[in-house]
Amino acid sequence: MMYPLMQAAAYTKEYMGGWAMMGAGIGAGLAVIGAGLGIGRVGGQAVEGMARQPEVAAKIQTAALIFAAFIEGAALFAVVVSYLIQNKF
User: What is the distance between the alpha carbons of residues 56 and 11, in angstroms, rounded to a whole number?
Assistant: First the structure.
């Protein structure tokens, strides 16, 4: 008697694939939003720092560019992992 209920509640590949697609989409979206916010914050703080101390503008600009590249690399890694999860199912 309990077997039909257990079969109805079983996780199928289609069921798990749907959740994987939704999770991958949410993960990729959050990674892109986070990267956009992070790069915007780095850029804004760099401009503010250059306005306050124009004599070290070159060092601030170099550091800001390096930090923006690190943020972009982390976001790219997160998006690639999300797409790998999506392609698994």
Answer: 59
* Distances 35 to 6, 45, 51, 65, 88 between C-alpha atoms, Å: 43, 15, 24, 14, 25
pTM of the entire predicted model: 0.72
CA dist 71 and 38 (Å) reads: 7
pLDDT, tens digit, 9 for 90 and up, residues 26-63: 989 999 999 999 999 999 999 999 999 999 999 999 99
Assess if residue 6 is contained within a domain.
no
CATH of residue 24: 1.20.20.10
Asked if residue 8 is part of any domain, the answer here is no
